[in-house]
Amino acid sequence: MPFNPDHNAHIIKSLAQELGFDFCGIARAGFLEEEAPKLEEWLSRNYQGKMAYMANHFDKRLDPRLLVDGAKTVVSLIYNYYPPERLPEGKDDYKIAKYAYGKDYHFVIKDKLKEFLFNLQEKLGGINGRAFVDSAPVMERQWAAKSGIGWLGKNSLLLNRKMGSFFFLAELIIDLEATPDIPMAKDYCGSCTKCIDACPTDAITQAGVVDGSKCISYFTIELKEELPSEMKGKFENWMFGCDICQDVCPWNRFSKPHQEEQFLPHPELEDMNKRDWEEITQETFGRLFQKSAVKRTKLAGLKRNIDFLK
């Protein structure tokens, strides 16, 4: 490979900045030894619920070298999605998680990562690598923490001291040697338990551990069958996803509005009231969420969620 690890790291970080990523961290690719027993226990407790895919590719989740031949480096990237203006979130409003306001992030960020890899190859020669946006068995939060761009909060999300947690994580796994960053020496949650206390379904079982099968996001997005009756009245009007543990996090007072036009909501969304949502048609659903992550639930799934909230 050309140049040296320091130079390569400098090029990687410069390109990340040019492409609009807020933070970029570098870690040496290898086996996540500390995570193996944690992941094993999480799965043994069935915290994945009906998300069967979480139990697949156990080895690949823990070792990125099994995803990319000869991988030497994991580049972790942060991309802001905190909205300039929130959609209505009063007690009489049905709510959508902020990450899903605009165009599906998988497409927006994947395009940026392809450009990133292309530019990297242009500058440094033949690099083999793959780009990931929540799209393969990669433990993205753990790699981000290992690369020094944040720490894992009590709600299990990555927290960053300058921008909280309203951001997407993405990774490049490459066979290029680059000087790794140093992980944070400690977490900065301290004795705060606001996220644990605020979760209406008690999904955060202990600091850093979330029972995915109790999370409102799981119920409203991942679960395809009937919603469990014992959860009735606990969703606080979230019809797609949930931001409760992020909204109460003190670190999110540092959230700044994103600059990504593609993440802005459809103009009609602001004017939707409870009755509009309850009477939503396929035509309106298609118009509002044409390229949105909300399409994952389909109209039938969204209607099921709304009916459950009534």
Describe this entry's structure for a reader.
- Strand 8 (204-206) and strand 9 form a beta hairpin.
- The protein has 2 domains: 5-84 and 99-174, NADH Oxidase, CATH 3.40.109; 194-253 and 265-305, no CATH class.
- The longest helix is centred in the middle third of the chain and has 20 residues, at 105-124.
- The mean pLDDT is 95.
- The strands form 4 sheets. Strands 1-2-7-4 form a 4-stranded antiparallel sheet, sandwiched between helices.
- By secondary structure, the protein is of the alpha+beta class.
- The chain contains 11 helices and 10 strands.
- The chain has helices at residues 5-18, 35-44, 58-62, 105-124, 140-146, 194-198, 216-222, 244-247, 274-278, 282-288, 298-309; strands at 23-28, 73-80, 95-96, 129-132, 151-152, 158-159, 167-174, 204-206, 209-210, 238-240.
- It catalyses: epoxyqueuosine(34) in tRNA + AH2 = queuosine(34) in tRNA + A + H2O.
- Monomer.
- Its EC number is 1.17.99.6.
- Its main location: cytoplasm.
- InterPro entries: 4Fe4S_Fe-S-bd, 4Fe4S_Fe_S_CS, QueG, QueG_DUF1730.
Structural topology:
Elements: H1 5-18, E1 23-28, H2 35-44, H3 58-62, E2 73-80, E3 95-96, H4 105-124, E4 129-132, H5 140-146, E5 151-152, E6 158-159, E7 167-174, H6 194-198, E8 204-206, E9 209-210, H7 216-222, E10 238-240, H8 244-247, H9 274-278, H10 282-288, H11 298-309
Parallel strand pairs: 3-10
Antiparallel strand pairs: 1-2, 2-7, 4-7, 5-6, 8-9
Enzyme class: oxidoreductase
Organism: Litoribacter ruber
EC number: 1.17.99.6
